[in-house]
Amino acid sequence: VDANGFSWRSGAKVEKLRLKQWFLRITDFKEALLEDLEFLAKDNCWPERVLSMQKHWLGKSQGAKVEFYVEDVAGEQLPSVGVFTTRPDTLFGVQYLALSMSHPITARMAKAVPRLQAFIDNAPNLPADSKAGFLLPGIKARSPLVKLAGPTTKVQESMP
Fold it and tell me: Is 110 exposed, middle or buried (0-12, 13-18, 19+ CB in 10 A)?
């Protein structure tokens, strides 16, 4: 999509639509697809920018999945939040976690916090590139690198 919202291939206006669709397990075939990109690169069969986009889309990310333990102001444990990172060395500097609007913690909080429910209801009206978020009151996430005592992180609901 170009800066004006049109397809770089066809020139058609790009629209965001909700569709019922099939989901393919592309990642199960990632290695074969990456190897086939080399074949498509021969003799300039595909433009370099398309090959580059495909490589990045399929890309190989090596890292770690870590669990942040989450609790409310009463100290009640909430579902933990799994986070994938390619840079585990940055975990000491985490400032907040962003949850989707469909996350179980967000859904639970929306029942008790009308302002959060209003934010969720208004989200479809926000621009596609919006960075808007909602700070969940009274929710803390504990770093997986810290045992029982130590710094906590704010939890914020954000656009999916």
Answer: buried
User: What global pTM score does this model have?
Assistant: 0.57
Q: What is the mean pLDDT of the chain?
A: 84
Regarding beta strands 152-158 and 96-99, do their DSSP bridges make them parallel or antiparallel, or are they unpaired? parallel
Residue 86: HSE in the Cβ half-sphere, 13 Å Cα cutoff: 4
Instruction: Give the number of other CB atoms < 10 A from CB of residue 108.
Output: 15
Q: Is 18 in a helix, a strand, or coil?
A: coil
pLDDT in tens, 24-54: 787 788 888 888 888 888 888 888 888 888 8
SS3 call for 93: helix
Residue 104's nearest CA partner among 67, 77, 79 is 79
Is the Cβ–Cβ distance between 146 and 152 less than 8 Å? Answer: no
CB 123 within 8 A of CB 100: no
| Sequence-ordered list of residues with C-beta below 8 angstroms from that of 99, at least 6 positions apart, any chain | 81, 105, 106, 136, 155, 156, 157, 158
- Backbone phi and psi for residue 47, each to the nearest 5 degrees, phi listed first: -60, 145
Asked if residues 154 and 135 have their Cβ atoms less than 8 Å apart, the reply is yes
